[in-house]
Amino acid sequence: MAGAAAAAEAVPVTPPGAKHLVLIDGSGYIFRAFHALPPMTRPDGTPVNAVFGFTQMLSRFLTDHRGSHLAVVFDASRVTFRNEFYPAYKAHRPDPPPELVPQFALIREATEAFGVAQVELPGFEADDMIAAYAKHFAAQGGEVTIVSSDKDLMQLVRPGVQMLDPIKQKPIREPEVFEKFGVAPDKVVDVQALAGDPTDNVPGVPGIGIKTAAQLIGEYGDLEGLLANTAKIKQPKRREALEQNAEKARISKRLVTLDENAPLTLAIEALEVRPPEPAALTKFLQAQGFRSVVARMGLGEAAGDAGTRARNSAVAAHAAAQAAAPAADPGTTPYGNYDCVTTIEALRGWIAEATRAGVVALDTETDSLNALRANLVGVCLATAPGRACYIPLRHVASGGTQGDMLAVPEAAPPQIPFDEAMAALRPLLTDRSVLKVLQHAKYDLEVLCRAENGGIAVAPVDDTMLISYAMEAGKHGHGMDELSVLHLGHKPISFDEVTGTGRARISFAQVALDKATAYAAEDADVTLRLWHLLKPRLREDGSLALYEQVERRMVPVLRDMEIAGIKVDGTELARIGEDFVQRMAQLEKQIHELAGRPFNIGSPKQLGEILFDEMKLPGGRRSKATGAWGTDAAVLEEVATQGSNIGAVLARTVLDWRQLSKLKSTYVDGLAAAIDPRDGRVHTDFSMANTSTGRLASTEPNLQNIPVRSAEGQRIRQAFVAEPGHVLMSADYSQIELRLLAHLADVPALREAFATGQDIHSRTAADIFHLPPDAVDKEARRRAKTINFGIIYGMSAFGLAGRLGIGPGEAKGIIDAYFAQYPGIRDAMERLKEEARLQGYVSTSFGRKLWIPDIGAKDMVRRAGAERAAINAPFQGGAAEVIKRAMVRVPGALRQAGLAARMLLQVHDELVFEVPEAEVDQTSSLVRSVMEGVVTLRVPLAVEVGTGRSWAEAH
């Protein structure tokens, strides 16, 4: 593995007789190897990609003789002495991926087979053991190199003790520590105590990041010096945060300080490097199928063949090298001069090259943006920056038509017969040892899995769009062209340049092969370059777990949901449409009577003239551009609250007419047009990287905006039905954003209400209006409910007044009472705004960064909007995180239980399933169990489950 080789070279050569201890952070390296390498399995099906990466590293250190002493240090358990005084420490960390779990024991077997000492001790972390051994070895005059990129170990750097970043293959000494933390290594724990670490649940001081912490420690010397002088701090919020969270800071310092006095489980002499026992090592390596490692260490015959095990080893070694240090510079290698592959011999050459590379960028060219209707026109591959090809499959003559595609005419350009090409590509696209890198992978996977396009289930995959999204949601777009300009400084050829625009646009199948190759192969080339640049950043950014455990796993889940679709009763839809038409006609008649004359209700200009010119109603605002009266929903809502006069009634009636009109055009007519005649189902497209909060979006058609509580919305949901012998099941998280508020702000009263199953709005009403629980009426509960949800969105007194129909003064009184009762919520909101201002982003409880671009805007309106977004983002984003984690777990749980239910839709906090009637109880119990147990918060999660023949009955 090239990365391991470079790492070995970076360790100083030990002169004869000198003492040099190399301590390998085994637990950290296991996860790095697992995420860096594509999936691999040994002959019995056991996953071994992390084992392979680990053995490659050990073999390099042993064969290159870089130390006199060597040990691998592991975590013995998740619970340590830190949990005794702070139970929340690392408590929210997710379980390791199922594919990694069986590899932990194998890695310990590998360490033993190599004859390398291994250190672990229950009750202590691997970092503590590394600290203890480094201290003892350095005290004896030896040099120590710690192989890890873990920032928590940087406190150990000193003369005689350095670190080695195994990702960048660079040593970490005092200058690198100062660059990371802004202080010398001996002050790192003080900075960490202030800044905290959400990954490990180290609380820190709210609103203080690394830069501010370094500045404070530099000024006051250490944590205790700072806490003793908080009165000198000029910024009121910072001073208050330090004074209120002093004890949390002290606890945080205890959490991050490594125990250099941890007991040594092995004597220093036991760590001396010794050669492995050849027979035992050979047996272990051959059992895993690691022939390349056997060959490297000269242990026996390793003559390769075309078999899976040999290829897996070579491919994984190359993939690891590419992940750690790509040979070609993705930013400077020239673009262009791509191959157009038109013979089966040339295609086989590219397939062999991609297989040897172990990582290949993949892209498809089609004739439609709708993946479930698109015909595959061509496939693109890229094996290295600047090395890419286009394989045309269904191109027609430039004058051909769409109808020519599936039966290629004689005048078509030269290309490989479709079935022959796909048969050749299938082994590559399904090879578990070759990582396929795509941009917006879900689309290509849906195209390729359809029978008419080859019926190929591509795996494994990485998605550059989702890699970018995991790190920078809300900061910028994540389309390939934008990412290329942003990260590569290269503007790709646009689709319009090769197909034309407007009426002159042609299908991609009609594009000449030279132009098609330049455009299509470049897409694959750019995708691979982006992967080389962005994938290594995931770990440094703290987003690797989010990408690997959530975003990447969502791709096949959503692919299957979109392919499944949901059945829509066209007859019922037509009945609903007819009813809406009749009601609109009645409303139109009523509106004309109120106005005193007929007019075009759909014309904002005519409506404005009636309301503000003829009726002289207050509240009108003219457009500066056109001079016409504004009549949007906000204006009409304001007019409608002006009492019971004719104008107010007219405004309310127009709003009702508009809602019906929108529902009719968007959902009745839109759904009818979207029904696939092949299966009678609607297949929505879930957009994975369009929102700034991590939520999914639904398009073509949008099924997330159907009104939930209105009678009209329920009517539309009646048209969504189950197949015969099945029911629809709705599983909906109850008040998840309020639960996240209670968790994040740590509000005891709300935590108690959720824990004991109280009605949260009634409890809030009793608290803020100082009422006995049995005296809370509907109006008090309504007000409490409005502020409970409004506070999450940063609602102002003016906004609350509008929602409740009261004066701004009274609304301000309610908000003041709310914050007086729940001061932790105000503190959390202020902390979120401060974090956004300092960092440019806020984080969910699960570590996703949500960027707030306008938080520093000079324009007050934009800045206020950004502050509201900063308050809301962790709750929307946190809710999105919870349901995504459920979505990646539920399908596997259903399969493992032998249940046939299919997950069809995700609508905000709700999942919709199609369930066989005989399996309703089992499925309901399992789904609820998975959804409620997917994360651990300070309050319990609750899921409401309903079933019925239609979505309306189930909801």
TrEMBL record:
GO molecular function, a single term: DNA-directed DNA polymerase activity
Pfam families associated with the record: 5_3_exonuc (PF01367), 5_3_exonuc_N (PF02739), DNA_pol_A (PF00476), DNA_pol_A_exo1 (PF01612)
Keywords, sorted A to Z: DNA damage, DNA repair, DNA replication, DNA-binding, DNA-directed DNA polymerase, Exonuclease, Hydrolase, Nuclease, Nucleotidyltransferase, Transferase
Taxonomy, superkingdom: Bacteria
Keyword Oxidoreductase: no
Domain 5'-3' exonuclease: 19-274
Record flagged with keyword Amino-acid biosynthesis: no
Enzyme Commission number(s) from the entry: 2.7.7.7
Catalytic activity, as annotated: DNA(n) + a 2'-deoxyribonucleoside 5'-triphosphate = DNA(n+1) + diphosphate
Domain 3'-5' exonuclease: 338-539
Residue ranges occupied by any DNA-directed DNA polymerase family A palm domain in the UniProt entry: 713-919
Enzyme class: transferase
Subunit structure: Single-chain monomer with multiple functions.
NCBIfam families, per database record: pola (TIGR00593), PRK05755.1 (NF004397)
Family: Belongs to the DNA polymerase type-A family.
Protein name: DNA polymerase I
Native source organism of the sequence: Dankookia rubra
Lineage, opening ranks: Bacteria, Pseudomonadati, Pseudomonadota, Alphaproteobacteria, Acetobacterales
